[in-house]
Structures are given as structure tokens and as C-alpha cells.
Write a structure and sequence with these properties.
alpha/beta, Aldehyde Dehydrogenase, Chain A, domain 2, 2 domains, seven-stranded mixed beta sheet, six-stranded mixed beta sheet, globular, Ald_DH_CS_CYS, 5-carboxymethyl-2-hydroxymuconic-semialdehyde dehydrogenase activity
């Protein structure tokens, strides 16, 4: 039995899925690309075609930016009150909740995300819009009184057209981190989804089309980074570029954006350490270590991919993690029992397999996994994988794998744990497990990372800033911090009375 949605998706038996052609959404209209070109996306569980997607080129970006520019310069959206914009964001959140099951199913078929995890991501997407609908109404500048002579105050003002280039791992939820504050601030948006995962962005465009958002305020152009994304970054009509993705690409984007002095927020790679001290809550730390790397198929920027364990418990802890890793249920992402689904694309699977081969060649001890699961002959499936006795110079210790691969090594003392944690070029997240609260804070504060969780799994508080240091990025999302990027800050100086002004040119 199949059911058909009002946006053209057809859901059938496990692994079976088809989708009507995906078009750009520009100035309130769904349309093919100007050149008439398209590309094919694949179902990660089968590598069978999912949909034909319009391929955006420079001329399509030109149309979208022109629409967004006009909507900002002449339209009502940036001129609405914050409460009026908040009402629209709340309607968007309600629409997401009403279509949450469909969104989750799309992420399953488009990305390979297990359905139970996809449902939680859909709920978080709605909450992101609700959150920024609240925050924008409470955002206020500051006032500075200078006796009875002057009053100086600050205003938050929208910047203009925001170009958003978003990733494929949790496509809609991560995009909503950028879309929601950009719209809340009064900007207009051109979204370039990842070419490997375009379907939830297409559904989202349909939902916004029905939400009362004025034409041109939100636009979607599908395509490849080298052509579509590069054109968006280079366009002089774009004021902001937000990018989430790989570090090398982020550097290229920032270099290109500099030519037109665009403001950039880039959330890049990660190689986050999980430090487990001998006095940690053993079972809870095992739970966190396993979930932190193998949830979302290991395709997450904040994954705890380097497990650093104090020598006294190293053997027992690695064995406990290995036992749990070997028992992880790999399979059809539409099955609620599945814990680890397929990687998104054959190219990415080959990349992760290359790292596994490199780890073995460099002498790391492969304890669990490393191969295709038995019986799963199609799709991009890979066993949950654990390496032990890793050395700091190994590629699997230094480089972001972005897959279900965990590497472990021991440390002697607090100083060595910190040294190992900081021995990579990334600095996005870190996790510390110890019952000694003083030690937890000492280690946490000495780690070079934008975010540190102490005795906690990666539980997001939307009020706090999200972002990294070193080669993990520049800029922060979350809470009022996002508006430092999506708003211009203007200062108004006002004299309350006549004041002395030097009189030049008076005889």
C-alpha cells in the first residue's frame, strides 16, 4: 500500500520510493532551470534513483538573488514589526509539525538517516522556528545617557540578502538553524541545498509557499557547489553567506566572498575528543561514547570521534565499547529498530572505507567492524567500526572521517589528555567524563573547542552559541548570538539640548 502526499512524494515498501521532479523555488514560483538541465539523486539504501532535480547555474542564481533583493529593498518583510514576523515563523513551525512524519520519511530516503532519529530531527526543526520567533521579539539594543545632554542608543537592523549553502547530513534541521534567524531578523534568503539531499528543502519550499511568506523572501536553487554555490557566493547582490560543510570548501567560500566584502559564518569540520577519566560514571560514559559517534550514521560534525581513556580503565572501557559497537543494529533506515543506516552516497562510503584501510596500514588495531554488514549487498552500508591503540600521528586520529568510525587511545594524566585533545587542527566540540567537578572544569576550559560538554552527551541549549575555533569555523549560531551575524548594528546619537560646537570659519 502506498500513500501520496500533496507535494508529490510517493511512499511505498521499505527501500521503495519515488519523487516527482524537483524544481527551483524562485520568487514564489516552482520552476525548471533556465538551461533545462537536471541531475539525479540516489536512495542510499539501494543506490536506485530517487528524483530528477533541476540543476541551477549562474542564471538561476541571478533570478533568485534579484527576487530576494527586490523583496528586501522594496517589499514588506523587513518592514514588518518583529511580532508580525514572529507570527509567520510560528505558522511555519506549525506547518513543519503537521508534516513531521513526511519530513522524517524524506530524510530516511534521501539521507539514510534511521527513522527514529529522523523524527527527532523534524521536531527540532519546528522548535528552531518557534525559538527564533520568541527571541526576535525580545531582542533589544542598548541606550547610553550622557547626563541631560545626549542619548545614544543601538538598533538591530536586517542586513539584506542571505545566501545559505547547507549540508547533507541532517539537511532540513541544520538549514533551519540558519533560515529561522535570517528570516526573523528581516532578511531575505536564497538557499542552496546540498545536491545529495534536496528533497526536504523542496518540501520546505512548498510549506513556506503556503505560509503567507511574501514572494521573493525565501528562494531555493538546487545545484552543485562548483557552479551554483560559487555563483551565489560571488553575486554582488548577496550580503551574507552562511555555510556548513567541509573545511577546505569553507576556506574557498571565504576567499571568494572577500571580493565583495560579504559577511561569512562558516561551520566546518570537527574531530571531537571524548575524554574519559578513571573516576567517570563507567556505564554512562560508555553510552555517550557509543551514541556520540554512531548516531546519525556517524555523519555529524560534533561526533565524539576520538576516544581518550585514562590508562587505569583503558582495557576495560575499550572492551565495553567494542561489545556495544559489535551489537549495533545496521540496516534499513525505515525500520524503527535500526540504529545505523547507510551512508549517504557511494562516493562518501568509498571515502570512509579509505580511512579504514589507512588505519589498518598505519598499525591501529581494528577491534570491530570495518566491512559491509553481512546480507546487505546493496546500498552504502558499513559496520560500526572501532580502532584501538591509535597514535596521534595517524590519519584516523587527525582527519575528519565523517562516518561510523571511532578511534581510541590511552592517556596517562590530565596534562596528556589535554595535549591529545588539542593535537588536531579542529576545535568544534569536546566531551569530558569525570566525577571530579574541579577536574572537569580544568580540562574543559583548557581544551581548544567552541563547545564542551561535561558529564553530558551533546544536548543542545538553543540559547547558547554554537560554533567552533581553529579550522572548525568562524561565527556562532544560537540564541541572540545569531543576530550578531544576521543583523547590522546601528548607533543613533541624539542631542537632548543645545551643546557647544567649535565654530570654524567665523571671523
Amino acid at each position: 500500500m502506498t500513500t501520496t502526499s500533496n507535494t508529490g512524494e510517493i511512499f511505498g515498501e521499505a527501500g521503495s520510493f519515488s519523487h516527482e521532479p524537483v524544481f527551483h523555488y524562485i520568487n514564489g514560483r516552482f520552476q525548471a532551470g533556465q538551461a533545462g538541465r537536471s541531475f539525479e539523486t540516489l536512495n542510499p539504501a539501494t543506490n536506485q534513483p530517487l528524483a530528477q532535480v533541476a540543476e541551477g547555474l549562474t542564471e538561476d542564481i541571478e533570478l533568485a538573488v534579484r527576487a530576494a533583493r527586490k523583496a528586501f529593498d522594496e517589499g514588506s518583510w523587513p518592514r514588518l514589526s518583529t511580532s508580525e514576523r514572529a507570527q509567520v515563523l510560528m505558522r511555519i513551525a506549525e506547518a513543519i509539525e503537521a508534516h513531521a512524519d513526511e519530513i522524517a520519511q524524506l530524510e530516511v530516503y534521501d539521507v539514510g538517516m534511521p527513522i527514529t532519529q529522523a523524527r527527532s530531527q523534524a521536531a527540532r526543526t519546528a522548535e528552531n522556528f518557534r525559538f527564533y520567533a520568541r527571541v526576535i521579539q525580545n531582542l533589544a539594543g542598548e541606550a547610553y545617557q550622557v547626563g541631560k545632554r545626549f542619548l545614544n542608543y543601538t538598533l538591530y537592523k536586517p542586513v539584506g540578502v542571505a545566501g545559505l549553502i547547507m549540508p547533507w547530513n541532517t539537511p532540513l534541521m541544520l538549514s533551519s538553524w540558519r533560515i529561522a534567524p535570517a528570516l526573523a531578523a528581516g532578511n531575505t534568503v536564497v538557499l542552496k541545498p546540498a545536491e545529495w539531499s534536496p528533497l526536504s528543502a523542496d518540501l520546505f519550499a512548498h510549506l513556506l509557499d503556503e505560509s503567507g511568506l511574501p514572494a521573493g523572501v525565501f528562494n531555493v536553487v538546487h545545484g552543485f557547489g562548483e557552479s551554483c554555490g560559487a555563483a551565489l557566493v560571488a553575486h554582488p547582490g548577496v550580503n551574507l553567506i552562511a555555510f556548513t560543510g567541509e573545511t577546505t570548501t569553507g576556506k574557498t567560500i571565504m576567499a571568494s566572498a572577500a571580493a565583495t566584502l560579504k559577511r561569512c559564518s562558516v561551520e566546518l569540520g570537527g574531530k571531537s575528543p571524548v575524554i574519559v577519566c578513571a573516576d567517570a560514571d563507567f556505564e554512562q560514559a560508555v553510552d555517550a561514547a557509543v551514541f556520540g559517534i554512531f548516531s546519525l550514521n556517524g555523519e555529524r560534525c560534533t561526533a565524539g570521534s576520538r576516544l581518550l581513556i585514562e590508562e587505569g580503565i583503558y582495557h576495560d572501557f575499550v572492551e565495553a565499547v567494542a561489545k556495544r559497537t559489535a551489537a549495533i543494529r545496521v540496516g534499513d533506515p525505515s525500520d524503527p529498530q535500526t540504529e545505523l543506516g547507510p551512508l549517504i552516497h557511494p562516493e562518501h562510503l568509498a571515502r570512509v572505507q579509505g580511512y579504514i584501510a589507512a588505519g589498518q596500514q598505519e598499525g591501529a588495531r581494528l577491534m570491530v567492524g570495518g566491512a559491509r554488514p553481512h546480507g546487505l549487498t546493496q546500498g552504502n552500508y558499513l559496520q560500526a567500526t572501532l580502532f584501538a591503540d591509535v597514535k596521534p600521528g595517524m590519519r584516523i586520529f587527525q582527519e575528519e572521517i565523517f562516518g561510523p568510525v571511532l578511534v581510541a587511545m590511552p592517556f596517562r594524566d590530565e596534562a596528556e589528555a589535554i595535549k591529545l585533545a588539542n593535537a588536531v587542527r579542529y576545535g568544534l566540540a569536546a566531551y569530558v567524563w569525570t566525577r571530579d567537578i574541579g577536574r572537569a572544569h580544568r580540562i574543559g576550559q583548557d581544551i581548544e573547542a567552541g563547545m564542551v560538554w561535561l558529564n553530558s552527551q551533546n544536548v543542545r541549549d538553543l540559547r547558547t552559541p554554537f560554533g567552533g575555533v581553529k579550522e572548525s569555523g568562524i561565527g556562532h549560531e544560537g540564541g541572540h548570538y545569531a543576530f550578531d551575524f544576521y543583523c547590522n548594528l546601528q548607533t543613533i546619537h541624539m542631542a537632548l539640548d543645545r551643546h557647544a560646537i567649535p565654530r570654524f570659519g567665523v571671523e
